[in-house]
Amino acid sequence: MDNATNRQVIFMFLVLLVLAVVSSLGYSIWTSLWADKMWYLYMGNESAGKMAANFFYSILTFIILYNNLIPISLIITVEVVKLIQAYLINFDLDMYDESTDTPALARNSNLNEELGQVKFVFSDKTGTLTENIMEFKQCSISGIVYSTDSSEEADDSSPLVLMEALKESGRTAMLHFFRVLALCHTVIPEWVEGSQSLVYRASSPDEEALVKAARDLGVVFKARTPKSIIIEVDGVEEEYELLNLLEFNSTRKRMSVVVRFPDGSIRVLCKGADTVIYSRLAPSEDYSSSTNSHLKTFAVNGLRTLCVAERTIGLVDYEVQFN
């Protein structure tokens, strides 16, 4: 609409310029014919140079006289209409989300115009246009399936409830699992003003769901600096030095971080698709077969799956690979 309006204004300006030139020519011709006869106008005999100067002055005069031909108020009117339409979007009840008490928010006045240009909507199999809420449901740790849902009827095949399992002894593997979830990500934590609640800002709902799951189970991601990550495990703060961050991409199909643990060991923490994780596992991995069976079960039940892995590397190997 802006382009169309600009073209119309330019066209009207050219028309105005042509009218001003034609009117100036007519004025010059009329002056040359009637200047002597209409002595009372005091036009007199003018030199060629002065006549040329007066011709350009006449063009400016006629441009001023015909200036109403250009609707300068058109652009202002259009912008006011766009602003009103943006407010209508903000107050649209059909776009209000009751669950989060969030109304629509038009961040610029051109939103309605941009929406009007949409002719076709495409969506891939991942459901880009769906609400896309991710929740942590189940996990397989050391060959045992755990669930966050305690409402299921318990039987021999039911997964153990995570919260209850964490209260028991021998949970080292579980803490390792959730420590990886709390460290291997690109989430940014934010403290809400006036309260002690922590909000996570993530580029993808997957990462946010995993970090929240670790938080709810006692491994809280609290702060991030360019060189370190701070988490809290059972009320005790732990700081890990962030050595390298390898973000997820379509080629690697995984995300990795290299961190130095408080005990001085350097470890690679990784999460990603099962195909790329399994191809890099040690041949002597104890729970490879059972975990693969659980992954298939999760997929059959409609859950999105990913694998988590950890490896300790020596200082020499780290310097060779990353320096």
From TrEMBL:
Transmembrane segments: 9-35, 55-78
GO MF, one annotated term: ATPase-coupled intramembrane lipid transporter activity
Gene Ontology biological process terms in this record: phospholipid translocation
UniProt keyword annotations, A-Z: Membrane, Transmembrane, Transmembrane helix
InterPro entries: ATPase_P-typ_cyto_dom_N (IPR023299), ATPase_P-typ_P_site (IPR018303), ATPase_P-typ_TM_dom_sf (IPR023298), P_typ_ATPase (IPR001757)
Keyword field contains Magnesium: no
PROSITE patterns with a match to the protein in the record: ATPASE_E1_E2
Subcellular location: Membrane
Protein name in UniProt: Phospholipid-transporting ATPase IA
Source species of the chain: Geodia barretti (Barrett's horny sponge)
